Amino acid sequence: MLKKKSLLELIDDLRKNENIVNWHEIPPQEAQTRPIPESVDPRIREALHKRGIVELYTHQETAFRIVAAQENIVAVTPTASGKTLCYNLPVLQEIARDDSSRALYLFPTKALAQDQKSELNEIIDEMGIDIKSFTYDGDTSPAIRQKVRLAGHIVITNPDMLHSAILPNHTKWVSLFENLKFIVIDELHTYRGVFGSHVANVIRRLRRICKFYGSDPTFICTSATIANPKELAEQLTGNPMRLIDDNGAPRGRKHFVFYNPPIVNAPLNIRKSSTIEVNNLAKEFLKHKIQTIVFARSRVRVEIILSHIQELVKNEIGSKTIRGYRGGYLPKQRREIERGLRDGEILGVVSTNALELGVDIGQLQVCVMTGYPGSIASTWQQAGRAGRRHGEALIIMVASSTPIDQYVVQNPEYFFDRSPEHARINPENLLILVDHMRCAAYELPFKATEEFGPLDVTDILEYLQEERVLHRNGDMFYWAAQSFPASEISLRSASQENVVIVDQSNVAAVKIIGEMDRFSAMTLLHDEAIYLHEGVQYQVEQLDWDHKKAYVREVDVEYYTDANLAVNLKVLEIDRTNDRGQAAVNYGDVAVNMIPTIFKKIKLTTFENIGSGPIHLPEEELHTSATWLELKQVDPEIGTKTLEQLLLGIANVFQHIVPVLVMCDRGDVHVTPQIKAAHTGLPTIFIYDHYPGGIGLADDVYKRFDEVRESAKNLIRRCPCKEGCPSCIGTEIAGMNGKHRSMQLLSLL
Amino acid sequence: MSSMRERMNRLRGSQEAVTEGQPADQPESAQAVVPASARQETAAGSSLAAAVKGDDHEAVWTKLQVTERGNEWGSFLQREVRYSLEHRHGHHMLSELADTALHLKAFHSDESGLAAPAMDNLLFLDLETTGLGAGAGNIPFMAGLAFVEERQFVIIQYLIRHPAEERAMLADLQDRMDSFQYLVTYNGRTFDWPVLAGRFIMNGLDRAELKLKHLDFLHPSRSIWRNTLASCKLSYVEEERLGIHRVDDVPGSEAPAIYFQFLADSNPAPLEGVFVHNELDMLAMACLSIRFGRLLDNRIAGERYAPEKPEEWIRTGLWLERMGQTQQAEALFRIIMETDPEGEPSLLLLAARDKKIGNWERAVLLWQKVAMKGHVLYTSVYEAHIELAMYYEHRAKQLDTALAYAKGAQRVISDRAHLHRADAKRRAEQEALSNRIERLTRKLSR
């Protein structure tokens, strides 16, 4: 039996590891507290005392004070800093004062809502006041629903439920809407991109209904650290906000370590697998009974790492104390794992970003990330899982060989000195806005002069009238269609007219396993495509484009498919131009015409091309916003062929770096180079939103272009490869001094 | 607004304009004619669509007997039709309401201090709405009311020419409701009333709970005809059980499209079909009131509209029992035993009721009838065997008889084994049965 080492000893061991490329220490912070305000109801004070709370952290106290003055707040707090008290305290205080008061809590997922209800009910029980809090979601039974509508003081739900069940049936919720004092939006930072743009409109509808019933609720939002919490909260709620960021929670010393696996093939710049390194690191801590969380980027990866670690430590501590955690686990299973982590029965957990959100698992000692989580905000959230209020904590990020991972570990200042990403939404995206105006008109008739966001919406009302969805009488527009619009609109779908994926493996039990937007479906769900869903391979047997259905069957094959997409870009309108002499950066509307041509079958193990086939699909057109970079003068000696290669390489770098900088999923932004753009004949690189009408990403790239360009140059410069590798500008560029020339071109911009 | 349309089409990637409101072509049923029953009584006479040409909308309204009404909230339209109480609609004559309404009190027997239902305190209600469900955007464009006044069956049908007239219409409707004690609907508990309650709120009217006592006849209809009729929709029930045959009825599901067309072109002619449909629904509700009143008054046997099938007899009896009419129920059960419908699966319903109240003698008799005479492929035969096996094992303590029935059940299972896939439920069934046989054999061998 080996002697158990302490975390401090293990940290000292780790300092000697040659693969550590950066060691960052975050000093401990003492708790900053203030007394519980005099005005707090004695029953609440008593309940807090029972839970050992005799003073409030500064941010909790500030939140209470400002909310009491009926100002809207957004509180930015790291993981485990007692943020729930920022909203529970003012809400409970108000309901204790006036039993008729109501509050609505919004959480991005059902699981978080359940957690919150349990926590809230514990305090309420200790208060000894009859305050009823309920979750209202798809799982709520019809018998309870009635009760929630009439008697729930605090209704805990998610935006989807608000959108499709509560708002369209608001007359059943009179007692909620008439007495609504607070709207709590937790995990505000998750409302970004398409989802956030939808939710902003759902909140517009919510406010409209509150106004109808004569209530004017205060918004209390909480967010993880992002660059623009106040701006996001204001955009989402349409209300001015006060930012609260005087976090007073204590924390122990944290060591944040970047680990870069050793290079095993120098010319190609191939490194040892990050998964193997993570397995070995995690094993060390677990062997010494140190509670550790491992983050992996996909569900499949979670299972692979889990089985490896369980195997590695089974003789020392038994595999039962190491668990996996990801979407797809049953709620009961998840609760059991969360409890096990809190009370220390479970020593290790391997998770997807599912545990990034506010689920309460207590505080662990070590956090190991398999690769860069994709954004600074996300990284800090995962890191927040390690770190007790007292004592040391260790966070290790193990880089994979992707360009962005390599960029981050080699540019630690990028990570540590920079504020995290901006969360972008575009509630004025026309498609999204029109969808929600339909829902809003269903809920209450529109007055011609009524506001719905910052834009004048008269045009849209008249358009809907022309479409015979609305009926105009005088200056009022009434819903005049048979449909129930909310059921046709999903808040989380990437675009309209999604392709539904139908699994017909079992003829007797055909089931729908997912949806995909029509643009992505062209290359991922064409006939004979291999489609991966939760780690299972399916082959597309038929893509019924007219009815937007893909029929798939489970298969077990040794290859994946890769489709070629011919893309043609047309500039429709130039909104802004920044002339930089030899180059120009533009922003405006573009039409993207896409037609898939062929697909290749690629062997999983060797990446050999083992076959191909044609794709027969009609051309699709996407109208969206784009930022494009024109090279007006290029050294003619470069030659067209080389220039084309260089543009491809730079586009590759942008495709890696832009999603990270603007905080979106990789597929949300596309980059396409053209050697001769149709409208100018100039070499051009387009960066565009992959959603009709745009969601503000290309706009962000335009505004922050200098930063984007510098990041791209840095990525190429710091990449240790000699002449380009998949981690930077790609490999097809060998022998032309590609890295240097790419950076030269970038400097023109 | 074509630029907005162009932008939307571009973003949606669709070339042609998409009209999502309603189908462009007008439904054929706009050509509806007044059914025979109504024709004699009303002055609406012949088919309006044919009679009125061009844009003479005024003439159509007149023909439809529609007049404008108003109150402090504005104006709306109203159609009034009066039937003599001697009017026969299907099997029943409206005057029968006079001596049957009283018996509907069984629906609210547990409440004291209520005025008993009578012909002149019932208000019949049926809404025609622009969509489905009780969501905030579903607007009742037509509200039909009916009641008895001065020996006549009066039907008042409100119609709004556009949504802005809704408040005035609802205010009038609310006023009228105040003078009645009972609200009669078909599915009004989950549809008509919640929709109205929501509309009162949306229009800033009185939000009080329903003051009238509700008689929703969908529920008793389901209790009685659940299995013997293909559907418990009103139009189906009235045709199969009330002797009412509609001619060229405009189905309720087509009403919204007709109304949206009217909103667009103001031509009232196609609305005739909707008025008539609504009118017929209210006549049918009156007939159902008579029917249920009679059932509750035990005026069933020997009547030409007596239940047709043994299951209906049994379900009627069970329903009467739930309504507190135990004597009437028992009378029905006796009739069933006399007619002796051997092997009828629904006898199990009565047996279950007898088992529950401890009337073992008849329960055993019923199970035996099913077990011995039922078609061997019926699930009921198997269930009857199991019930008998349980009875003889646990109550009569005759283990050998119990085993015989358990083995009988086993035979039934193997006889119909080829009909079903061995799913989880059947495997569990089979396992439970094997355990039973094993246990009985063990007990017997002691």
UniProtKB/TrEMBL annotation, chain B:
It comes from the Bacteria. One of its GO terms (molecular function) is nucleic acid binding. Residues 123-288 form the YprB ribonuclease H-like domain. Pfam families: RNase_H_2. Residues 1-47 are annotated as: Disordered. InterPro entries: RNaseH-like_sf, RNaseH_sf, TPR-like_helical_dom_sf, YprB_RNase_H-like_dom. PANTHER family: EXONUCLEASE-LIKE PROTEIN (PTHR38462), YPRB RIBONUCLEASE H-LIKE DOMAIN-CONTAINING PROTEIN (PTHR38462:SF1). This is Ribonuclease H-like domain-containing protein.
